[in-house]
Amino acid sequence: MVKAGKNPGPRKTIATAEEITRLFAAAEPWQRLWLLLCSQLALRNSEARSIKASNYDPAAQTISFRKKGGGTHVLPVTPDIAALFEAAPEAPEGQDWTYIERWRGKRLSKAAVEHKWRQLKRRTGVRLELRAHDLRRTTAVSMYQLTHDLRAVSHLLGHASMSATCGYLAHQDPQALRPLLAQLRPPTQLKQ
Asked: pLDDT tens digit string along 100-111?
């Protein structure tokens, strides 16, 4: 147990490729869209649950939404997400439902989404400690491993602070630094 006032440090949990595959294979369409938004675009759970037709620009293939801390964040959507947006059932007359709610066919509270997330993890045998936010971290880590570009990762996550972005990458294996350190400086002869 962590004492009040103590920072336990950044969380290091990321999803494996196998876990993500199992989750997608067993997810209902609304949950698949939620998973795509959390994993492919690294949205927070609350952001993924909030995306409506008014957030989506089909011509530009982008979404714009209010990010944590304020301000608007714009991201390109993947073809998978665009296809689910464009095929989403219509909301009932006069209702301004999110895309996830349109696919589900009813309103979804935060608690309902989290309950269905826990059920999906149990049904697929995915680690129960895996959080929706870990999907965001998984994408950040994957993007960094692919590009080695902290600014790209920071933009994807919508961070104003590079230190916040670095916190997402804290899981990195320290042993992976060894060959990089060797390349920074030529070996020196130590006198004994």
From this structure: 999 999 999 999
Q: How confident is the model over 138-147, as pLDDT tens digits?
A: 999 999 989 9
Buried-state track 153-169, b at ≥16 Cβ within 10 A, e below 16: bbebbbbeeeeebbebb
Q: Are 103 and 88 in contact (CB under 8 A)?
A: yes
Q: What is the pTM (predicted TM-score) of this model? A: 0.84
Q: For 189, list phi and psi in degrees, rounded to 5.
A: -90, 125
Q: Yes or no: say if 2 and 8 are a contact pair by the CB < 8 Å rule.
A: yes
> Positive or negative, the Cα torsion across 121, 126, 131, 135?
negative
Domains of the chain: residue spans and CATH:
17-184 (1.10.443.10)
Cα–Cα distance, 8 to 18 (Å, whole number): 28
